[in-house]
Design goal:
The complex is a heterodimer. Chain A is an alpha/beta fold. Chain A is built from 5 helices and 7 strands, in the order H-E-E-E-H-E-H-E-H-E-E-H. Chain B is globular and about 90 Å long. Chain B starts with a helix and ends with a helix. The chains are: A alpha/beta, B alpha+beta.
Chain lengths: 172, 658
């Protein structure tokens, strides 16, 4: 009987891995969900208006997308953000994270600008307050400025359809 | 055309591997010598196919064939030739091709060296190796084909800059040699379970293969540790990252296996345990790629993860390991022999060694998988860090060091405590005296960990050396004495000395290492570990496919210039990646390590400065263990035994003819 113990252990491990394959270890629940978006006061890229604060986010749902021209995965999500931004389904706010304007401008020129407005977080301070630990990350805010959802990594059609849209629908 | 040939060669290799798996098995069933002999030819044919496929992919990388998706993702026109060749295994698909190339290389080696073995044993081993190969070929063809075409583009995305280092050129092939080598031990174990032939001769056949795989794994892990230290800029040499653990677990199981094989060969004991360890080492070497490539755990090494790949390896593991363990549960009870085993004998102490190694392996496994398990049980997400591993490991490894010195002295069958104590008196006293004095002599103070590391490390070294010393002194002339020591004994001594040196290095760098984050203006200095680091200037440097900001740091010690270091921050424009390239002044007693941080507008820079005493001993220990394995695997008795067995086989064949 004791010779069958290894087999039993194996079966348990396989079960564990089976479970693991259906989970994403990168999904870390954000403590900010359901709370008001952390305060920020950042300069805009275009200077129109020169600065924006958290208060300016209220009034309509908005996607706050932390991105950077140096980030590879941002390029992955970029085409979809272009599509989303131009579809008019939601307002897109980009926060350019630890990135110089001189690097960002050619990037936008080349790929297009999906954002209604871009804020510049050169030192990453807003990123710290928002609990960003890698770009891209996307926060979904309702009209009252509460965080409904946080996407770590690229925004994809699946995430938009299955997670974000139902949440926005429920909140409005 | 070339990529299609490569793809076709992989399909062909799959076909040959299927034949290699099935035909010898049929031959064994029907007792047909021709079918049995087919295994060797199939292994060699399979190697030709996969070598051709590998050559095709290398050719595509060297000639920048940007119509292949995998080449586009990992090649670049400015990449130097050496990295174009190593870029073949720089990502998932190609590294799998390297994996099967090495697996098939091992199979060819088995087909050549096993000619002296009884034909049924040799054929069954090749058959099992064929089955393992089939699994990997299916994995490549169904989920990870490196030859997939796409619309040609003008430029590739380049090899990940972190991998553009000579250390990486050697690290994966060595590691794969080790991982894959355990497939041979596994095949021998399965063949033994099928035939029921599980005796001292079987252990003698299996041992050199296992030792060879183990020594490559040792070297691969050592290179990996050195590479991470040098390249990642954190000054660490081991992070308990899931992927490092994935290479360490088979190493622990493999180390247990080579020791229990010794017991099985010399005393015919622990047979079913040895077989189980062989299955375990192989299973753990499959677990490595599963953890890295499936995305179940977060790791700094993560390859592009893909659930379908994870699902495939999981299925493969379930079939291969599940099948093996089922066979084990069914057959092993009949093979177990009741032999007398005294605890105070070499075999008894080796059993203790095995217990500690396997428990250590289980502790690493639990630590690695617990984030997954806790998530599965619904307790949320956690990560298990170095504190857990360091504590658990220290507790388990300390008794092991005691045993290493003891087991080499206690004879087989029955040990005499009095005699053992007499022999170990000198090494023990020397280890305690020298070990207590050493930290004071080198560093002027001695924290507990440093003392323990020095005493245990020196105890291991002295006890290992006294074994050789005693053999040499037994002869009238030292020359004859040295010649009388068999290679296997040299190998064991060297590996144990390596372990001791490793312990000295680890305890030294942990106890006395120091680091500092500083912001220095040009011309400013900082002190660390008795050395003065002066930041002279920062300038530009140009590499073949990167531009770099380069700092110049002069190091002085007691008024004398020690070194001028040039840490760099490299920008690889092809991927827009920034990499730190730390500068290291290496020495046997200490490393001085500087990595460049951020530059500020006023011309000052942030720097990370490390003082790493004895860190080189960690890798020196690893290299000595490798050399020990090499000597042990090359021991004369394997060749003598092979010659004797060949004669026996020939006589048997001749008898059959008459």
């Amino acid at each position: 009987m004791r010779f069958a113990i290894p087999l039993v252990v194996l079966v348990c491990l396989i079960g564990l891995f089976w479970f693991g394959l259906h989970r994403d270890p990168r999904l870390v629940p954000s403590p900010l969900i359901g709370k008001a978006a952390p305060a920020f006061d950042l300069p805009t890229l275009d200077g129109q208006p020169p600065r924006m604060t958290t208060a300016d986010l209220k009034g309509a749902p908005v996607l706050v997308n932390f991105f950077a021209s140096w980030c590879a995965e941002c390029q992955v999500e970029h085409p979809y953000l272009m599509q989303l931004g131009h579809s008019g389904q939601v307002r897109l706010l980009g926060i350019d994270y630890k990135d110089a304007e001189s690097d960002l401008r050619p990037w936008l020129q080349q790929k297009g600008n999906p954002y209604a407005i871009i804020l510049s977080d050169l030192e990453g301070k807003a990123g710290i307050d928002w609990g960003v630990y890698g770009v891209p990350e996307t926060f979904v805010l309702d009209a009252q400025g509460h965080i409904l959802y946080k996407q770590i990594g690229a925004m994809t059609p699946e995430v938009w359809e299955q997670q974000v849209r139902p949440l926005l629908k429920a909140s409005s | 055309m070339i990529p299609e040939l490569g793809h076709f060669a992989v399909i062909l290799a799959l076909g040959v591997a299927l034949l290699q798996a099935i035909v010898p098995l049929l031959g064994w069933k029907r007792r047909d010598a021709r079918l049995l002999a087919f295994g060797a030819s199939a292994a060699q044919g399979q190697f030709l196919c996969v070598a051709a496929a590998y050559a095709c992919l290398t050719y595509a990388f060297v000639t920048w064939d940007f119509s292949i998706k995998y080449v586009v993702e990992n090649d670049h026109t400015q990449l130097p030739l050496m990295y174009r060749i190593s870029a073949v295994w720089g990502a998932h698909e190609g590294s799998l091709l390297l994996w099967v190339l090495i697996l098939s290389g091992w199979s060819v080696a088995v087909s050549v060296f096993n000619r002296r073995l009884p034909p049924d044993m040799s054929a069954l081993v090749l058959s099992v190796l064929g089955m393992v190969s089939v699994g990997f070929y299916l994995f490549i063809l169904l989920t990870s084909n490196p030859f997939l075409r796409q619309m040609p583009v003008a430029e590739g995305h380049d090899l990940n800059p972190i991998l553009q280092d000579p250390g990486l050129a050697i690290h994966p092939p060595m590691l794969y040699m080790g991982y894959v080598g355990f497939s041979v031990a596994f095949s021998f174990a399965i063949a033994a379970l099928i035939t029921g032939r599980l005796d001292a001769a079987w252990a003698r056949w299996t041992r050199p293969w296992t030792t060879t795989a183990w020594m490559f794994l040792t070297l691969g892990i050592t290179f990996g540790s050195w590479w991470a230290y040098k390249e990642l800029g954190w000054g660490g040499w081991w992070f308990w990252d899931p992927v490092e653990n994935a290479s360490f677990m088979p190493w622990l199981a493999g180390t247990a296996l080579i020791h229990s094989l010794a017991v099985t060969e010399k005393r015919g004991l622990l047979k079913s345990w040895t077989v189980l360890l062989a299955i375990l080492a192989f299973s753990l070497s499959l677990l490595g790629p599963f953890l890295v490539r499936s995305g179940v755990l977060v790791s700094v090494h993560a390859f592009a993860s893909d659930p379908s790949r994870g699902m495939f390896i999981l299925g493969f593991m379930a079939v291969a390991v599940g099948g093996a363990l089922t066979l084990y549960a069914w057959r092993a009870p009949k093979l177990a022999t009741a032999g007398e085993l005294r605890l105070f004998s070499r075999e008894g102490l080796l059993l203790f060694n095995n217990a500690f190694l396997v428990v250590a392996c289980a502790a690493v496994l639990i630590g690695t998988l617990s984030p997954l398990a806790i998530d599965a049980l619904g307790f949320g997400k956690i990560s298990v860090g170095p504190p857990y591993f360091n504590v658990v490991f220290l507790v388990l490894i300390a008794p092991l060091f005691m045993l290493v010195g003891l087991a080499a002295v206690v004879p087989w069958k029955r040990g005499e405590p009095g005699e053992t104590a007499r022999r170990l008196k000198v090494p023990a006293v020397a280890a305690v005296v020298v070990g207590a004095a050493l930290p004071f002599a080198l560093f002027g103070r001695a924290p507990l960990l440093a003392l323990a590391g020095a005493v245990f490390g020196l105890w291991t070294i002295f006890a290992a050396v006294q074994d050789v010393w005693r053999r040499v002194r037994a002869k009238p002339q030292w020359r004859a004495g040295l010649a009388s020591v068999p290679r296997a004994a040299w190998g064991m001594t060297l590996a144990h000395v390596g372990l001791g040196i490793w312990a000295l290095g680890v305890s030294g760098v942990v106890s006395f290492g120091d680091e500092k984050d500083v912001r220095l203006a040009q011309g400013a200095e900082t002190d660390l570990g008795g050395y003065t680091f002066r930041f002279v200037e920062a300038g530009q440097a140009q590499g073949p496919n990167y531009t770099a900001q380069q700092g110049t740091v002069q190091v002085e010690h007691g008024g004398h210039a020690v070194a001028t270091l040039h840490p760099q921050k490299r920008l690889y424009p092809s991927q827009g990646t920034v990499m730190t390239q730390s500068a290291i002044e290496a020495g046997l007693l200490r490393d001085l390590y500087v990595s460049l941080g951020e530059g500020y507008d006023d011309g000052s820079w942030s720097l990370r400065v490390y003082y790493k005493p004895l860190v080189r001993l960690i890798w020196l220990g690893g290299v000595l263990m490798f050399l020990g394995g090499l000597l042990a695997a090359a021991d004369k008795r394997y060749r003598l035994a092979r010659a004797a067995e060949r004669k026996a086989v020939e006589i048997a064949a001749a008898a059959k003819v008459m």
